Task: structure prediction
Amino acid sequence: MTSTTKSNVANDAMSLINDLILYQDSIPPYKDEVVKKCAKQIEELYQANYDDILAMRSKLDSSSSSASSIHDDPKMQLCRARQNCIEHIKRLCLTYLTVRLDRLKSLRWKHGGLLPFKIKNNLSPSETEWLNGYSRMLAEFQQSIGDNGVNLFGHIHPPKSLHIHVRALSDYGEFELSDGTTIILKKNSLHYIPREDCDTLLKQGILEFANLGC
Amino acid sequence: MLIRDLHNFRHHFYELVKREKHTTIFVNLDVDALCACYILMHAFNCDNVSYTVNPIDSWTSLQNSLLEYCAHSSYIILINCGAYRSFLSIDLPENVTVFVIDSQRPFHLDNVFNRDAIQLLAYSSEIESWKLPKVEDVYASDTDESDEDEEDDDEEDPMRERARIADRIAERALRRQKKAQWKRNRANVLWEYYMKTWYSTPVSVMVLELAHELNKCDAGMMWCAAVGLSSQLADKLISMESYNKVCVDRMRPFIRKYSPRNQQAQCKGDDVMKISFESDLLLPVYTHWTLYDSMTNDVHFSCQSKLWTQKGNSGLRHIIATLGLTLNECRQSYSIMPIDRRKEVFKILEKHLNSNFATFSSHFGYAKQFNAFDFARALSLRLECRLDAKETFYDRFMASRFILDKFLAGECAHETLNNAIQNYKVGLKAITSMVFTAVSQSHVINCSTYFLLVVHATSDSIYLTSRHCLFSFAHFIQRAFASARNARRMEKPLVVAVPLGEPDAGWFWVTGLMPLAEYIKETEWKSIFARAFEHVAERSNIMIKRDSFDPNIIMVKSEERTKFFNNLDAILEASEN
Result:
């Protein structure tokens, strides 16, 4: 165990990173056991270091050699190497976790709250908890803006205005907006309604853009 | 119910509507309403209120649309329509409130005293002058209907019984007498109140002040209000004195803000709209035309030189020569006259016309200055005139809005505006030629109490479907007719009847003007014709259509028109005595 090279020691951690590289932009299943294994490895390495340093310290106390000799002790090199390993593994694990969270955040923005089932399955429980907390914070923030709250998920870039002027080309009748109010679309009437609600009707040709300056 | 004064306009009208999910706005097809709608839409856009705009031109379409829309919106706004007639006939659902911003007076009493459903916006200072009758005088409260059945005491001796019955009969007779008297009083009060109709502060100025209160006002909005106000003068709805009064009282703070006198306060920039309020000539669109054309189509110069006679032309040339202007100058386009000569000509004409007229004009950077009065004229023709049969009134509304939009965006020389001005010149020439034919061929008939003019159906009479053209025509004819220096001609009112083409063939559009003497003398132009027409229709059972929002314009069937005019004669005679 103690004579393995750095790359061999960190193999498990590297496998996590390889996983991430393989599943670009998406979130692979959470390798709980591997992460636990890495954590255990760090513990083992740390323990080995601890034992060695304790041994060296006691030797120092008993013998009369100078303190600088401790640094020349080959065991010290090993300790340093082990410390590097620990940090490397730690870095890899942390990268794994952070990248997963980042991807999760961007997926949340892309899908607007409803993540696909596969991805939900791939999350660890703590990640799910993090996601819920994040969504809750977003909702609170949105609610606090303006009178009724603003839906930030509608546009990536800030739009010129939230509503647009449209003209009804035919007698469509009643139409329900996203906030529940119904409006009547009669032929040749001008409306000023939220952008998102008009998209379908604009495509169908029932509404058309009214070219107004203000 | 009345909402009085600006503070309440804001809190009881705007703030309520702002919080509402969706509002419906109904707009009348006239320039004042268009400008007011523009300012209101601007305010709504700033506040992200979603709304629907519906232009309408008649009572029947308003009633139908109102019923449809009030199922879904709880707030409805009416601009320049609806104050004159009662809304009780329309069955509005419980939670719907209708806000009415109208310049037409008087307001119907049902709307004023109605508790919550109808809210009319008006200024307190003005309300005093209406002499509103008291509620008790007009509406019978329920407690007046006394319960007929009174308790019967246990039967005592017949003497007392008979006395009590006699008392009860006497009481009932007294009550009936009181009620009859109350009814007579009520009829008098209503007669007095509804007798005269007139136009008050333009709605665009009211909405501008509201926008200013909300801090959503800028030079463009002020220009809209200036156009709205000028359109009232151009449509001959108000007198010059009323116009000046509104300019001085209402528009002064805005003038100070958007066209300050000293140079330093003015912001420089090519795309900033600068508005100025200066004295100007009352010649129609003279800056876009030649002086000669403008004078030949102007009421004052035509009447002075009697242009409809054979000597008319030479008369006009004589006037021009006396003024010191050369004919060449007058016949060339005004805009190519050199500036210093233009200033001199301006001074000469101003002194000659002596009309004390000042108006708003705006310009962007170094572009040409545009007069609000001319703008209002061009816009009203575009909006009201049914020249192209395929255009619906919605198209006209959007086209006029587009012109206003482009102008405020800085494109003063946009082709739609130029087209509108060219069309206006054509229209004005048509109106002038109709006036001249009518006067020279003596189409004006003298009935005993009024003068009647039945316009012959020509290709030009299509212009008279627009209210602006109709009233300009009527006023022009009145002046021309009275310029024969026959004093009696100034004393009698004038009634004008115009035959309509499709889709209202077989109907005549009838409107009436008060005597010319009154227009010259009075500062507030109040007309009795709306009431007179109603009376005639009631008394003689003639079916008339009172569909237009202006109560002075009605439609009469051509078969019934002689009967109508005879009865009108009788009514006017009766009212004079």
About this structure: The longest helix of chain B spans residues 158-194. Residues 144-153 of chain B have pLDDT under 50 and may be disordered. The two ends of chain B are 36 Å apart (CA to CA). Residues 441-576 of chain B form a domain with the Diaminopimelate Epimerase; Chain A, domain 1 fold (CATH 3.10.310).
